[in-house]
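Task 17 of the worksheet. Students: predict the tertiary structure of the chain below and write it out as C-alpha cells. Keep your answer in the requested format; marks are given for formatting as well as content.
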Amino acid sequence: MGHGPPLLALHRYPGLQRDVAAFVPNFRHPVELKPLRRFRCIRFLNTVLVAPSEAGYSHAVAGHVLSSGSQSALREANSARLLAAVRRFGGITQVELADATGLSPATVSTIVKQLLVAGIVETRTTTRSGRRAQFVTLAHKSGLLIGVHIGSRALRLAVADSRFEVLTSRTLPLPPDHRLDTTLDRAALLTMELVDGLGSTTSEILGMGIGLPAPVHPTRGMILDQGLMKGWADVPIADVMSSRLNTPVAVDNDANLSALGEARFGAARGILDVLYVHASYGTGAGLMIGGEIYRGTRGTAGEIGHTLVDPQGPICRCGSRGCLDTLVGAQALIDSLRISRGPLSLGDVLELASSGDPGCRQVVSDAGAVIGVAVANLAMAFDPQIVIVGGELAQTESIFLEPIRAAVDRRVLISGGSGLEVRQGELGALAPVQGALAMAADLTHIPGGRR
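Model answer:
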C-alpha cells in the first residue's frame, strides 16, 4: 500500500462505524470493507481505516508499521471527546454519552472505566426511562467553587472543584438594563441546576465569586453609582446571594476579576504588577500591585471608561460629560457604522472587522488608538510590568492591539529600555469567571487559590 491514502488504526471492531464517525468529523458516508491479510480495511474518502481481524494486531500507516503511540493517540482522542461531552452537560449517562460523542457503547464503557480508575470521573446508578443507567460526572475534590460573571448582555456561570477544574458551565443571554432581582434569581437557579446535574448538592459549595460591570465598594460589596447599572445600586448583592445559597459570596468589578484570573491562570502568571484592560460594552481596567488587586477607597480604581477625553462630548450613563466610554463603548462603535452598515450588534462589528470589512476595521482600530492613550497615561502613573488586554474587542487581535501598543510606545518614559509589553489575554471571555473562581477560593482559604 506504499503510496496509498493514510491508514488509521481502529482499536475496536464492534461498533466500528460509530467509532469511525467519532474519529472522522462529519462522517455520513457508506464505508467499503476490503480484506488485507490480518486486517479489515475501511476506505473512507481519502483515508483507509484499519481494524484488526481475528488475533493479528499489526498495523500499517501509509505503508509503514503503525506504532503503539498511534493506538494511544486514538484512545486519547476518544477520551478527550468523551470528557468534553461530560464537561458540556455536567452529568450524563453512558447511553447518552454514546449518542453525544458518536462512540460505540462498548468504547464508552471502556473509557469510563479507565477514567474512573484514574480518578477523573465519578459514576453512580440512576434511572432513565424506567431503566437503570450509569450516570457519569467529572470527579471533584473538597467541595465546589462557583464563578459568576453578570455582564452587560450575558450571564456566565462555572462550577469548579477545589483544584480549579471546571466541571460544568453555562452562558445565558441577558437583555439590556436587566433587572437585579430577576438576574440574581437566574444566577441562583442556574447554580442549583448545574450543581444538581453533577450529582451534588448546594451544601458542597465552598464559596461563590461574582463579577459585575461596574465599580463595587471594597468593604460594603455593593454598587454605589446609580447610573451604571440601573436598579442595582445600594443593594448588598453578596448578602442576597449568600442567603439564597447558604454559602460565602464575594462581589467585585469584572475588570478586577479578569486581572485576577489572568494573574492566576492566564497571560500574567508569575507577574506581580499588572495593568489589565477590559474592552467590551464598556471599558475598564484592573490594577494588580504586588500580586494583590488594588481597588481604591471606593472601588473606582481603574475605571478608565469614565475618565475625561472630550470636555464637550456627550453625556455618559454615569452622568459626566465626555467619558472614554462615550467614544469607544459598544453603542458608540455601533452608532458610527449605522449609516454605512445599518443596524449591527457589537458581535457583528467584531466579526466583520476580523473578516476584513474596512469600515469595521477602522472603527475597531480607532477605538484601540483612543483606549491606547488612556492606557499609556495610566501606565505612566502606575508603572506596571505588563499590560494585558482582554474583553470582546481583543478578539480582533492586532486590529485592536496594535494601536494600543503604538500609543504606549509613543510615551518615552515607558517605552525606553525594553519597553512595556502589551499582551493579549489568554482567558478570553472566561477571564472574569476564572477570576471569580479564584476569589471564591480565597474566601475559603483553599490551597492554590491565593498565589
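Marker's comment: The first strand starts at residue 7 and ends at 9. The chain has a mean pLDDT of 81.
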